[in-house]
Specification:
FAD/NAD(P)-binding domain; 20% strand; 14 helices; single chain; six-stranded mixed sheet; 16 strands; seven-stranded mixed sheet; 453 residues; 2 domains; binds flavin-adenine dinucleotide; alpha/beta
């Protein structure tokens, strides 16, 4: 097929959406020597004096780092981040208890305000262009390309075109929770809490987390059902609410700041989007949130999007850049993994709020970590597989279910064994009954004395 640029020209790839995934993807295609055009509705933030919109903290883990490494950006980005070694759980009484992520020394999670450096690659950035999907009516805004890559986020315009087609599966789910960001300033120029942790205040239906920033502030994100957000209408009610659920955070955020910032922006919604296939013929493909918006509770949305780029690139290598073979293979390989991480993120939505408070959950976490330490190749905690390896997401889930069954059975056998062993020892070496009777008699006479006194 002839390229829009002419027979001898390089193939043109139009990347729609210059967010995290689109910008990185543009670098991947440019590295392969394609003529890349990046379409973004917002202005070029590299030139902007004021960058509008929200800036959220993102946890960058292994998958994302591998993708950045591929285009030579890992160090540049990671050096601007803060490593996080463990979660720090804040209980209601202000007690803080760390839960490590996994094996010591391995738990490294970067927390970044990410800006992708496009400058190192020859990518044409077309700002303020509203991308119009390929039309045949000769419209001025029509863009021709050999491949259109839809990286235009959770509300993708490119994906909307897929919806018109037959056999395209699509679902979206809004969770009842919204999120709101609050800032915890530094105290005497230092972090107000220990910086190398993901701080969590789990309160069953509510949850607050805090991530450190380079300027020694923390960004606290409060997750709560919308109806609860709406119940709080005055500054005093905000303080009352924090007093009840997050009292240790009040002096750290500040009473005045809390009263003010709570009403600065309304709570934001969170959506989970699943679809399939990710491609149309050999012309168009979806990646990042456009293909799979996930709720943010596994810290994997961007990481999964970055991994999309690396998986696509691996398939390009395998199929010699033949789009007609690459695109269906990409859908075949990637859909089960992206759907698995969407489900896991939903699972963690419950785990982070409720289970981290449960003793059984904490006990199992310790057992999992201990077993991983003893048998690092056999037992790998789910979180470790997802965050610190490139194990395919759907394989990580299957392995997790298998490990869970084995460990639970092991615990049941051990408990039964201990019970039987104990009974056997008791039968073999019965304790002197008189020694047991004396304290029992004493206790009984004390009880009688108490009742009659
Ligand atoms: P986006 O970042 O949404 O970018 C899409 C881009 O497309 C935007 O720049 C937009 O302007 C542009 N665009 C839209 N429509 C058009 C159009 N028609 N034409 C041209 N351009 C267009 N992920 C993690 O990995 N770790 C985390 O810790 C983490 N925490 C999160 C916390 C919260 C509260 C939230 C909400 C998300 C979090 N995520 C996290 C998820 C992460 O933010 C997203 O997965 C990531 O931003 C997706 O990148 P993207 O490039 O696919 O989409």
């Amino acid at each position: 097929e002839e390229s829009p640029g002419g027979p001898s020209q390089k193939k043109v790839v139009a990347v729609v959406g210059g967010g995290l995934v689109g910008a990185l993807n543009a670098c991947f295609f440019a590295k392969r020597g394609f003529d890349v055009e990046l379409f973004e509705t917002r202005e070029d933030i590299r030139q902007a004096k004021i960058v509008r919109g929200r800036s959220i903290n993102l946890a960058l883990s292994h998958r994302g780092r591998q993708a950045l490494k591929h285009v030579g950006m890992e160090e540049k980005i990671v050096s601007q981040g803060i490593p996080m070694h463990a979660r720090m759980i804040h209980s209601l009484n202000g007690k803080q208890s760390p839960i490590p992520y996994g094996k010591k020394g391995q738990a490294k999670r970067e927390n970044n305000r990410l800006v992708i450096y496009l400058s190192s690659y020859p990518v044409k950035l077309m700002c303020r262009v509203n991308f119009v999907f390929l039309r045949s009516d000769g419209s001025e805004e029509q863009v021709e390309a050999d491949l259109i890559v839809g990286c235009d986020g959770a509300f993708s315009a490119i994906r909307k075109q897929f919806l018109r087609r037959s056999r395209f599966n699509y679902s979206q789910t809004y969770i009842p929770h919204g999120y709101m960001e609050l800032t915890m300033p530094p105290i005497n120029g230092e972090f107000a809490m220990k910086p190398n942790y993901l701080h969590i205040w789990p309160r069953n239906t509510f949850m607050m987390i805090a991530l450190p920033n380079l300027d020694k502030t923390f960004t606290c994100t409060l997750f709560m059902p919308f109806e609860e957000f709406e119940k709080i209408t005055t500054g005093d009610e905000v303080i009352e609410f924090f007093q009840k659920y997050f009292p240790d955070a009040i002096p750290l955020i500040g009473v005045d700041a809390l009263k003010r910032d709570y009403f600065r922006l309304p709570a934001q919604a969170m959506v989970s989007v699943k679809c399939s296939p990710y491609h149309i013929g050999s012309k168009c493909v979806l990646m990042g949130d456009a293909a799979h918006a996930v709720v943010p509770f596994y810290g994997q949305g961007m990481n999964a999007g970055f991994e999309d780029c690396i998986v696509f690139d691996e398939i390009m290598e395998q199929f010699n850049e033949d789009f007609s073979a690459v695109l269906p293979e990409y859908t075949r390989v990637r859909v089960p993994d992206d759907h698995a991480i969407a489900d896991l993120a939903m699972y963690n939505y419950i785990e982070m709020r409720a289970h981290v408070n449960s003793k059984w959950f904490l006990f199992r976490k310790h057992i999992d970590n201990l077993l991983h330490f003893l048998m690092p190749k056999t037992i790998i905690p789910l979180y470790t597989m997802v965050t610190f390896t490139r194990t395919r997401y759907h394989e990580a889930v299957a392995r997790w279910h298998w490990q869970d069954r084995v460990i639970n059975r092991g615990l049941l056998f051990s408990a039964t064994g201990a019970l039987l062993g104990g009974s056997f020892l008791l039968i073999k070496n019965p304790p002197d009954i008189n020694k047991l009777l004396v304290p029992a008699e004493k206790m009984w006479s004390r009880l009688v004395a108490l009742r009659t006194s």
